[in-house]
Design brief:
The chain folds into two domains: about 190 residues, Vaccinia Virus protein VP39 (Rossmann fold), CATH 3.40.50.150; about 50 residues, Single Sheet (N-terminal domain of TfIIb), CATH 2.20.25. Strand 4, helix 5 and strand 5 form a beta-alpha-beta unit. The chain is α/β, with parallel strands linked by helices. A seven-stranded mixed sheet has the order 3-2-1-4-5-11-10, sandwiched between helices. Strands 6-7-8-9 form a four-stranded antiparallel sheet. The N and C termini lie far apart (about 40 Å).
C-alpha cells in the first residue's frame, strides 16, 4: 500500500479507536480479556515494575496498568493516538514517548520488568525484519529475568483469502472490510470502509501475521525463551484449536 508507514494506522484510527474498541464497542476485545484482566496478569509478572507498553495507542491497557500502581511507559508511532491518550484523566501517571516500536528511542537498556504488546499490535509491524527488530529491542530493554508479553491471533490459513465482509449493517451506517492477502509474505492489506449519511471514510491497515512457532523462533534469536502460552488472559490452556494466544517469553 503506497504511502503506508508505521504512523498511518494510528493517525487514521485515532478518532474512532475508543468508539470501536473501547468499553466493548462494535469490535469487542474482551473475550480474550478485559483491561483489568490484562493488568492483573501483568502486575503478577512485573512485581514492582516498571512496565513498557509498545503500541500504547489511546491507553486502553496502560491506564488499567497504572491503576494497579505500576510505573508505566507507553510508546506509540502515532502522535494522534498519544494526543488522545494525553487528553484522558489519569494519563499524567504515564510516561509517553513517540517512536517506532521496532526500534524504541530514548530508553535505557535493562530497565523494564515487562515489555507488553497487546491486541495484535505486534502484527502492525509489516515486515519480518521489523518484527525481529522489536523482539531484539524488547530483549535489550528488559532486566535480566524480565518478560516480553504479546497478545495476538493465531493465523488460520483456511481463512486467509481476499474478500469483502460486513462488520456492521445499520439503518444509517455500514462498515465493511476489504482485504487482500499475500500468503507467501503473510501480509494482509485492508481497508475498513465506513459508509454513512455523513459521507464515506477509509481506514487502511497492513498486518504481517506470524504463527506462534515463528514468533518463538524470533524470540529465541533475540535471547528470549518461551515461559508460558495461554489462549487468553484468563489462563485457558492453549492448544491446536486456539484462535489466539497470550505468550510470555523470559530474558535468559
Amino acid at each position: 500500500m503506497d504511502g503506508y508507514d508505521e504512523r498511518t494506522y494510528g493517525d487514521r484510527y485515532a478518532e474512532v479507536y475508543d468508539h470501536w474498541y473501547g468499553d466493548d464497542g462494535g469490535m469487542a476485545l474482551t473475550r480474550i480479556g478485559t483491561p483489568t484482566d490484562v493488568a492483573n496478569r501483568i502486575a503478577t509478572l512485573a512485581g514492582s515494575g516498571p512496565v513498557l507498553e509498545l503500541g500504547v495507542g489511546t491507553g486502553r491497557l496502560a491506564l488499567a496498568l497504572a491503576d494497579r500502581g505500576l510505573d508505566v511507559t507507553g510508546l506509540d508511532a502515532s502522535g494522534a493516538m498519544l494526543d488522545r491518550l494525553r487528553a484522558k484523566p489519569g494519563s499524567e501517571r504515564l510516561t509517553l514517548l513517540e517512536g517506532d516500536m521496532a526500534a524504541p528511542p530514548g530508553l535505557a537498556d535493562d530497565t523494564f520488568s515487562v515489555v507488553l504488546v497487546g491486541f495484535n499490535t505486534f502484527f502492525n509491524l509489516t515486515t519480518v525484519e521489523a518484527q525481529a527488530g522489536c523482539m531484539a529491542s524488547a530483549a535489550r530493554l528488559l532486566q535480566g529475568g524480565g518478560r516480553f508479553v504479546v497478545e495476538a491471533f493465531v493465523p488460520d490459513p483456511k481463512l486467509a483469502t481476499d474478500g469483502v465482509s460486513a462488520r456492521h449493517v445499520g439503518l444509517d451506517r455500514v462498515l465493511l472490510d476489504v482485504v487482500k492477502v499475500d500468503g507467501a509474505e503473510q501480509v494482509i492489506t485492508g481497508q475498513r470502509i465506513e459508509i454513512s449519511a455523513a459521507g464515506n471514510r477509509l481506514f487502511p491497515y497492513v498486518l504481517r501475521y506470524a504463527t506462534p512457532n515463528q514468533m518463538d523462533a524470533m524470540a529465541s534469536a533475540a535471547g528470549l525463551r518461551l515461559e508460558d502460552r495461554a489462549e487468553d488472559w484468563h489462563g485457558t490452556t492453549f492448544d491446536d484449536g486456539s484462535p489466539a494466544h497470550v505468550s510470555v517469553w523470559v530474558k535468559q
